[in-house]
Design a protein that fits this description.
alpha+beta; two-stranded antiparallel ribbon
Length: 270
């Protein structure tokens, strides 16, 4: 493929598998725990690889392993770099990405800086055991994310009129606080309860819809192996409980009109 030429979905998927392979090798070499998650986990269980129309790979790590990874290195292999708030002060996410530096990507809605074809790496954190404080924690987190989203690139775009009004109301306060301070406060807030020993856990660094991701910590107490394309990957032992909590009947294919990528970006070889 020529430099500067836009990359097809199939080529993106192949590159993402290469990034995942190098990431797994690094985790094995340094005894770091990871699990395939979200749509990638559905793909592993239902398709033994990508959901055919999917265009990304999702990985989650217990918070301690996540922090250890990002504290050890900025790259997992040659041309496979890590990007996070720890090495990019203006990083617009609360999770990390491992990307192929031979490619370049322009992502709508977020100012990620220079980045290429990537896999997402999410930390999973603990939650309060008390149901009242757990719900309070999650609703406060949703409010914080509402402000955080308004200060991203193209910040006042919204999918509904109500969301547009809410964004306009939150925008002055969110702008005054600033994207970086909001990001760092949310990151501090979601690390208040350790993953280890918590009865309830959740990935809290994705968006404001984390309530449906709350589950018992025993989901991660065991692991299993599964095929993802040509790789043997680790999945949570409680993967069925995890996927049903988030998606319901995950083995059922969605309607044809929903069988499309949820990302909006352009990728090219440098």
């Amino acid at each position: 493929m020529e430099n500067g030429q836009e990359i097809s979905l199939q080529e993106i998927q192949k590159l993402e598998v290469q990034v995942l392979s190098k990431f797994i090798d690094y985790c094995k070499a340094h005894d770091l725990k990871y699990y395939i998650a979200y749509g990638s986990l559905i793909g592993a269980i239902r398709h033994k690889g990508f959901i055919p129309w999917d265009d990304d790979i999702d990985v989650i790590m217990p918070r301690d392993d996540y922090e250890k990874l990002l504290g050890m290195t900025d790259k997992v292999a040659e041309n496979m770099l890590l990007a996070s708030r720890y090495n990019r002060p203006q990083w617009p996410y609360l999770f990390a990405k491992c990307y192929d530096s031979k490619t370049e990507m322009v992502e709508e809605g977020y100012d990620s800086g220079v980045i290429g074809v990537y896999i997402d790496i999410f930390p999973v954190d603990g939650l309060p055991n008390n149901i009242f404080f757990r719900k309070l924690h999650m609703y406060w987190l949703r409010f914080l994310y509402g402000m955080f989203v308004t200060v991203q690139k193209d910040n006042l775009k919204a999918t509904t009129p109500l969301r547009a009004v809410l964004k306009k109301i939150l925008f002055p306060l969110a702008s005054y606080i600033g994207r970086r301070r909001l990001r760092d406060y949310i990151d501090y807030f979601i690390r208040c309860h350790p993953f280890s020993g918590s009865e309830f856990v959740a990935v809290q660094s994705t968006d404001g819809h984390c309530l449906k991701q709350v589950m018992k910590g025993h989901v991660y107490s065991e692991t299993a192996m599964c095929k993802f394309e040509n790789l043997d990957v680790i999945i949570p032992g409680g993967y069925d409980e995890m996927l049903r909590t988030i998606y319901g009947d995950y083995m059922k294919l969605p309607p044809v009109e929903q069988q499309a990528s949820h990302h909006n970006y352009v990728v090219r070889f440098k």
